[in-house]
Design goal:
It contains 16 helices and 15 strands. By secondary structure, the protein is α/β, with parallel strands linked by helices. The mean pLDDT is 97.
Length: 423
Amino acid sequence: MSNRVVITGMGVAAPNGVGLAAFEHAIKNGISGIRHDKRLEELNFSCQIAGEPVITDEIKSKYFSELELRGFNSSGIMYGVIAGMEAWEDAGLAIPDKDAPDWESGVVFGSCTSGIDKFREGIYKIDDLQVKRLGSTLAIQVMNSGISAYLGGKLGLGNQITTNASACITGTESILMAYDRIKAGYATRMLAGSTGDSGPYIWGGFDAIRVCTYKHNDSPEQGSRPMSASASGFVPGSGAGAMVLESLESALERGAKIYGEILGGSINSGGQRGTGSMTAPNNDGVQRCFTSAFKNAGIEPNKIDAINGHLTATAKDSTEIANWVEVLGRRGTDFPYINSLKSLTGHCLSGAGSIESVATVLQLKGGYIFPNINCEDLHPEIEAMIDKSRITKTLQMSDINIIAKANLGFGDINACIIFKKIQ
């Protein structure tokens, strides 16, 4: 069995917009979600700006009961539930009654660290000999699979319920894992996505290894500068994105709205050999991943209309584009449009791949390329490879048919998905 797999629902909790409508308005108009973070300043972080979703009490009460919010302190699970529940509702799917789950639907929702603030609460109580006051939800809030457990229970799903954790490719990987399960006929629908906690205990490690910018603490919206000559490191972020993937047969049968089709993709590792290391990609591994994605999707490189890159605003941006140029065999004005959501959100870490995939598919459905901001001074190595018109700085309406989405992660791991407009 080999089912075609389509996207029938999406949801998002991003630094520049919570909910699909707010998020799409932000990406089309180049609205940044990066703000000064007083906590980081007080803790003497070098980077004192961040991208964090703004969750109002009204939004919380829509997705959580008062009982669930009592003692709740896991931002990643909060974002994931909001995005996942929105995607399910957007797909027009019902929630089964209490007696019988939906056996044909499951969840793959990634998270690299869950409930770190709740975890800190627990450590203090245990060290103060107050283990009996930890509460009944500490365990589920701090286990990595907590987000999948919450979503599986709230939606009553009876197929596979799991969580993956693969650094910055977590979100793209979860979508491909869900795609494989439906394609093979093991599920009819899968809720796929990823989430990442907010706060200094998540971002501190990156500040310590000096990969975050410290030059824009007084100008946060200018801090994230993918592909810019003046890029000085990434801005830490957080949030969640979600997609309902479904067999084409099921989507057509129930008359569902279809955002696009997943043609295929690829996941691999450079093995931390050659140019690769724990924190840098092996270029041969990256190129093999992209090439394999095209092959698995059954398309030629000249069919790619646009790319949503990983592009974090570090010295590796030009290397990533060089890998695309090599694999596609296209440069100058022949290169596809390329953009990076991180200029608007910062780097949302384990949430990045899914939030960026939602933005990618919104472009496909809406027929536009959202603008890159903060790259007026395009890096000269990039400008030597591709024409600057391919890196749009304003909203570009374009009848795009196929978009490639890629993420690269710590541990020298790579993922690439090929999305196509449904015919």
